[in-house]
């Protein structure tokens, strides 16, 4: 009984993931003094040296949020796979692309974490040029994650629209977000669209899981 109750709550891990992401952004951007993309190399070097605490804390919070998002992906895949039936191609594509997308997002923050760790735990002398390289290299991983967001959203949207496992309008919204990923404003999806979409899908999956339980009761 207890395990069944936890299973019903599993989709809400998406909400927990978004909460940790928001905390990470607050720590890194509001509490920490993150340099602009156009900041000189010496300023970036000073950022790694002076904001080690906020970099470590923000990175850990973001990583914990990603772990909860992966659990949310498992709940999403289970619902899509059950509704889709064999061979489950769309649910497999959505899950695989979602995991890959999150892996690249972790790689996006990893170089900044490495820069702070180099000056702290590793006790290495990091040149301004090396600090600048670490600061910008993560952008490449972020751009690559956009490419995996497209099949993730497309497969999910098609599966939802076809099976009606969740409201059909969600499928069309998801497909529209996938189209956004191939436009110049694709960055909006990660900083606004992905968190809002995750919150919405988490709630809908949770309500879907409660319906059979209420009927059985």
What would you call the structural class? mainly alpha
What would the average pLDDT be, to the nearest integer? 86
Tell me about the largest β-sheet: none
Helix content: over 70%
- Give the total of beta strands: 0
Q: Which stretches of 5+ consecutive residues score pLDDT under 50?
A: 213-217
End-to-end distance: 13 Å
Q: Strand content of the residues, in percent? A: under 5%
Shape descriptor: elongated
- H and E order: HHHHHHHH
Rg, Å, rounded: 19 Å
Using brief descriptors, characterize the structure shown:
single chain; 83% helix; mainly alpha; 217 residues; disordered C terminus
Short synopsis of the structure:
The protein is mainly α and 217 residues long. The protein has 8 helices and no strands.
Question: What is the fold's blueprint, element by element?
Answer:
Elements: H1 2-9, H2 13-31, H3 41-50, H4 52-84, H5 89-119, H6 128-163, H7 168-180, H8 187-216
Helix pairs in contact: 2-4, 2-8, 3-5, 3-6, 4-5, 5-6, 6-7, 7-8
Could you walk me through the main structural features you see in this protein, from its secondary elements to its overall organization?
By secondary structure, this protein is mainly α. 83% of the residues lie in helices and 0% in strands. It is built from 8 helices and no strands. The radius of gyration is 19 Å and the shape is elongated. The chain starts with a helix and ends with a helix.
């Amino acid at each position: 009984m207890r395990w069944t109750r936890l299973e019903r709550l599993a989709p809400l891990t998406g909400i927990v993931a978004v909460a940790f992401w928001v905390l990470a952004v607050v720590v890194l951007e509001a509490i920490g003094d993150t340099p602009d993309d156009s900041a000189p190399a010496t300023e970036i070097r000073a950022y790694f040296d002076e904001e080690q605490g906020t970099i470590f804390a923000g990175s850990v919070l973001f990583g914990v949020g990603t772990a909860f998002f992966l659990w949310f992906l498992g709940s999403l895949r289970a619902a899509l796979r059950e509704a889709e039936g064999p061979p489950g191609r769309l649910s497999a594509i959505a899950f695989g692309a979602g995991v890959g997308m999150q892996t690249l997002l972790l790689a996006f923050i990893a170089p900044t974490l490495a820069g702070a760790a180099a000056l702290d735990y590793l006790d290495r002398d990091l040149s301004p040029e090396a600090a600048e390289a670490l600061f910008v290299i993560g952008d490449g991983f972020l751009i690559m994650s956009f490419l995996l967001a497209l099949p993730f959203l497309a497969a999910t949207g098609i599966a939802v629209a076809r099976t009606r496992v969740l409201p059909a309008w969600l499928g069309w919204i998801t497909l529209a977000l996938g189209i956004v990923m191939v436009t110049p404003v694709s960055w909006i999806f990660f900083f606004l669209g992905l968190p809002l979409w995750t919150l919405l899908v988490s709630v809908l999956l949770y309500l879907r899981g409660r319906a059979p339980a209420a009927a059985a009761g």
